[in-house]
Amino acid sequence: MKNILSFLIVLFFATASNAQVISRFTWDSNTTTAVAGANAISVSSTAVVMTGGKNGSNGISPGLGSNDINLVLDGACFNVPALDISIDFRREESQASFFYRGSYFDFGMNGGNLSAIFRLASGSTYTTINSGEVFSIPNDHNFHNYHFNYDNNAGVAKIWVDNVLVYTYTGIAGTALYWTGAGNVTIGRAMDATGKNVAVMDNLVIQMQANALLPLTLVGFTAETKSNYAQLAWKTTKEVAVASFIVERSSNGASFTAVASIDPSNGFSGINNYLFTDSLPFTTVSYYRLKMVNQNGSFTYSAIKTVSFTSNIKAEMSVFPNPATDYVIIKMNNGRAAQYHYTVTSISGQVISAAAVQVNGGANQLQIDLTRTNVKGAIVITLVNTQANTTETFTIIKK
Predict the structure, then answer these.
(1) 238's torsion region: left (phi>0), alpha (psi -120 to 50) or beta?
(2) What is the pTM assigned to this prediction?
(3) 3-class DSSP state for residue 31?
(4) Which end of the chain is more exposed for a tag (fewer CB within 10 A), N or C?
(5) What is the distance between the alpha carbons of residues 79 and 49, in angstroms, rounded to a whole number?
(6) CB burial class (10 A; 0-12, 13-18, 19+) of residue 399?
(7) Average pLDDT, the chain
(8) Is the Cβ–Cβ distance between 235 and 276 less than 8 Å?
(9) How far is CA 258 from CA 70, 250, 287, 297, in A?
(10) Per-residue pLDDT tens over the stretch 128-139
(11) Is the pLDDT of residue 4 over 70?
(12) CA distances from 86 to 124, 161, 204 (A)
């Protein structure tokens, strides 16, 4: 029954606010394992899962003694501009925090009254919003639902108790929550149930609104030649739950292949700078784009940038020894780094060996082992520059 109720709770909030779950706990069997999203990294040694939760299901208890629950989650998961928190709580005391992140955010009970304190970005600094005591939490030892929501698009914060609105703050539209320098999140801070070993929390849902999940703002993206390389640079701001930047390259501007994955900084307030150097661009023209991947799997593409190489030196090549017995060496002088694929075949077309190799710009020697074949006589070496799409063919005699 509890799983059905939990599903309906999540469905209600996901439908009402079009939100994405950051972390959800039902405490059916484990104190630190979430049923969705981020797990906890620690909890009080006395905290336990036990019966007596919402609607007779399991919940989490501080355990015996006077220890607080102190369920700790990695704060990096919560550096988001908008936040939605729902918790079922049974009052057994007068002081407790449902969601606590130091002076940055505190949603919970103070002196038996519901309140919320949170910071909003204001330029490079912040403004602290204090709701004050908005509701007297019933001391009836029954579970009630407490729900906080901040919508950064509207700049509006609201608090509900059992789906009844009890507080509204209206600020400046487009203002994000401020998290610069914030630490980890604690669920159940100062929550000891006055030493009673009873379940006091259940069905925690922490979300962020999908319309606040613009993965980032791409401030700029450039691609240019640096010697014989392509150098890509981009700047972002307002990064939210970005999973990765995928650099994709194409020879024709239509068919792209991933060449690198860059980790994000997920910095929301400032400017984030990124740089990537492609040492193997295509010889004439390379097309590049960024695939910006969100943690929920969605992604967007940047505009396509072009890098052209107008003066490329064709590699000078020679092969020795010829005739050969055990090995053959291809000597080359490359104007730039390149990737090659070679194939060694008999005169009848039998493949003796094949491999892909990468060489740097300048003088290089590529040694090919001939000891693994009994083929004698004329053999053909085909060397393809996969960047320039050029082919060189050599015929040698194997003794």
Answers:
(1) left
(2) 0.56
(3) coil
(4) N
(5) 28
(6) exposed
(7) 86
(8) no
(9) 43, 9, 12, 16
(10) 999 999 999 999
(11) no
(12) 30, 10, 6
